[in-house]
Amino acid sequence: MIATFTVVVFLLAAFRLYIILPLSRTLKPRTASHSISTRRLAIFLGSGGHTAEALALLSTLDFSRYTPRTYIISEGDILSSQKAVALEASRAISHPKSNNDNFTILIIPRARGVHQSILTTPPTALLSLLTCIYYVTVAPILYSNESNSDFADLLILNGPGTCFVLCLAVYINKFAGLRTPSLIYIESFARVKKLSLSGRLLRPLVDKFIVQWPQLLQDRGRGECHGLLV
Amino acid sequence: MRAFVTVGSTKFDALVNSVFSEAVILSLSQRGYTKLVVQCGNSTFEFADFVANGESQVLEKEGVEVEYWKFKPSLQEEFDKADLVISHAGSGTILDVLRLPKPLIVVPNPTLLDNHQEELATSLGDLGHLKATTAVLCRDLAKTIETFDVSTIVPFPPFDGSKFARIVDEEMGFI
After folding, report:
1. For the complex shown, is ipTM > 0.90?
2. pLDDT tens digits, residue range B76-99?
3. Residues in chain A within 8 Å Cβ distance of B117
4. What residues does each domain of chain B span?
5. Architecture label for domain B2-171
6. What is the pLDDT of residues A113-152, one digit of tens each?
7. What is the 3-state secondary structure (H, E, C) of A176-221?
8. B173/A31 Cβ within 8 A
């Protein structure tokens, strides 16, 4: 009896997962109504070169369209938050009429520290996941009566590790049928012949998978290349 | 003429030891360089003790004035002043220098576990945007400096923000 129940639950879960995976999708994901003229954007700043590329990409967007903006930063990565604030400040000067001051910075614990032992990784990764779930799933439900309560319409990711945890949190929303952001992953310009670990993990999960070197798509897997973007 | 060497935020013993070698200094002097500036980071080399506390030191070797120090908050000014940049293969540094543009010799750090730095350097080298070489043998770096013909550099494409903006606008239903 219990075994049958488990099998049925498992099959239903697998079917649900199959439906929400972008590979099998024929319809556009559920995003905000296209009648409104702005989209809420969230972007993960993965420190160092990841942050530099992410902000270079973000700087190309029309901030009056993509507003408000949420910068997601790993705990202790002060440099990335300074750079995000600097970009916002420079936009406020160059485009004084667009939606300024319309950004927030979210801090999430690192899934795994740089020299962290493999043994202590599971608890820290779990804490990281729970924080992401809070921001992506729980907070929007708790504050659903306020306008702009959703996490974001668009989530831009470019690695490293912690961005996979964010993606998992988004999938919990997808699984539950809650509104989810479109996911765009951009592989670093530094990756020429081999995808990064986060690239390989996120490739089947994101709505748009972009690489900057065409060699990376020679395996005929999913993804697109528009040449250099940074 | 002025050359600038950077090892990035950590250390790169092989590169720093190479640039202080007679072979490399001679090759620079031969090509008309009279000033060499070295950002040595935490690398271990003959003169490392003199800059251990953040000092800047100068010495003279084979008619080349060599200035060296560990770190500066921004290297932009050094890139601007240099006629040649010799750098580790960090993607940020590569972009900064190629966009200026300045002639660039890239030396991937073989001690880094992930060898994607080398991939990037070699690929950009194959496209003619820079010269990629190794620092394990001082001869290689010296030879690259001696034979680097700046007129053969293929210009690196400028930053084109419209491409990514279009991709995102399309995905989000603006186009």
Report:
1. no
2. 999 999 999 999 998 889 999 999
3. 190
4. 2-171
5. 3-Layer(aba) Sandwich (3.40)
6. 767 777 777 888 899 999 999 999 999 888 876 665 678 9
7. HCCCCCEEEEECCCCCCCCCCHHHHHHCCCCCEEEECCHHHHCCCC
8. yes
